[in-house]
Specification:
Layout: H1 11-17, E1 27-34, E2 40-43, E3 46-53, H2 57-66, E4 71-77, H3 94-105, E5 110-115, H4 137-154, E6 158-161, H5 168-178, E7 187-192, H6 199-205, H7 225-237, E8 241-245, H8 251-260, E9 265-269, H9 271-282, H10 288-302, E10 306-309, H11 312-320
Parallel strand pairs: 1-3, 1-4, 1-10, 4-5, 5-6, 7-8, 8-9, 9-10
Antiparallel strand pairs: 2-3
Helix pairs in contact: 3-4, 4-5, 8-10, 9-10
Bound molecules: ligand PBG.
């Protein structure tokens, strides 16, 4: 009897026949950027992840490029917030300034920007509120178009709207096209579940809603069929890449999407996934490296083509060492 045993006998053969070969080109590393000077501040809930001031960014980008990572997604933490999130589209907003600085020094890095209002609103919700404190979908998407345009004008390469408002992809596509940015791709956070796995990010970005939750606009994790519906709407509206978020508890969703659409699939392995592994690793409860390799591989096996992960640097090293 041989049920594949012969192909498992040496490491070289296992590597030769492995179905998953993770490629560095598919990795996206998240960066948190704040106002100020000379700041590289560790995020308490996310060991070894930092908030950088703009003057500290170049050094970090150099490190990333040296490891062979070519894509970053930027999150801004502004000093001032207001109830309409106007800091998100200012010419001298934190992301706009960071983009100009990065693009001045590097042209080999792809800058993706998260388009959302929650880091810029005083109430922490992802949109404008009506008089009953409910997010006003249609007013919000107009502003999202403005935010996206301001990012591209400052140098962003790809726009990634993460707010989950209805109709936003169409609105953003229109806004970009009107300004002539017809070749700028949109990664849609089409399938974003209302998840407790975002907890550490909200500490990092200071974006916890001051009341209520995001269940009226993010998806219910009991729903699987709805994911495909969300993806198809966004494709029809002009999305170029479809994202599933979080990743680890949503491998079934990643596979469904992979099997049913023809666009590249991106998964976002979020802050809670990162912090759980880091904390358990630091306490020697798990072998951190091996768990990173195994969980990451499972996301690719589920069908993701692209992965946003706080472990991008570790993964790049593991690839260099031939460990994945
Ligand atoms: C902004 C946004 C969030 C994340 C990415 N973009 C937070 C949220 O929706 O609450 C979470 C990322 C992570 O947890 O790593 N809307």
């Amino acid at each position: 009897m041989n049920r594949g045993r012969r192909l498992r006998q040496t490491e070289n053969i296992r590597n030769m026949v492995s179905e998953i070969k993770v490629n560095k080109n598919s990795l996206i590393y998240p960066l948190f950027i704040q106002e100020g000077k000379n700041i590289k501040e560790e995020i308490a809930a996310m060991p070894n992840q930092f908030r950088y001031s703009i003057d500290k960014l170049s050094f970090e980008i150099e490190n990333i490029l040296k490891l062979g990572i070519k894509n970053v997604i930027l999150f801004g933490i502004p000093n001032e917030k207001d109830c309409v999130g106007s800091g998100a589209y200012l010419e001298n907003g934190i992301i706009q300034k960071a983009l100009r600085e990065i693009k001045k020094n590097f042209n080999e890095i792809t800058c993706i920007t998260d388009v959302c209002m929650c880091e810029y609103t005083s109430h922490g919700h992802c949109g404008i509120l009506d008089k009953n404190n409910i997010v006003d979908n249609d007013k919000t998407i107009k502003i999202l178009g403005k935010i996206a345009t301001s990012h591209i004008e400052a140098g962003a390469d790809i726009i990634a709207p993460s707010d989950m408002m209805d109709g936003r992809i169409k609105e953003i596509r229109q806004a970009l096209d009107e300004k002539g940015f017809v070749n700028t791709p949109i990664i849609s956070y089409a399938i974003k579940y209302a998840s407790a796995f975002y907890g550490p990010f909200r500490e990092a970005a200071n974006s916890t809603p001051s009341f209520g939750d995001r269940k009226t606009y993010q998806m219910d994790y009991r729903n699987r069929n709805e994911a495909l519906k969300e993806a198809l709407y966004d494709i029809e509206e002009g999305a170029d890449i479809i994202m599933v978020k979080p990743a680890l508890s949503y491998l079934d969703i990643i596979r469904d999407i992979k099997n049913n659409i023809n666009l590249p699939v991106c998964a976002y392995s979020v802050s809670g996934e990162y912090s759980m592994i880091k904390m358990a690793g630091a306490n020697n409860i798990i072998d951190e490296d091996k768990i990173i390799i195994e969980t990451t591989t499972s996301m690719y096996r589920a069908g993701t083509d692209i992965l946003i992960t706080y472990f991008a640097k570790e993964i790049a090293k593991f690839i260099d060492e031939g460990r994945m």
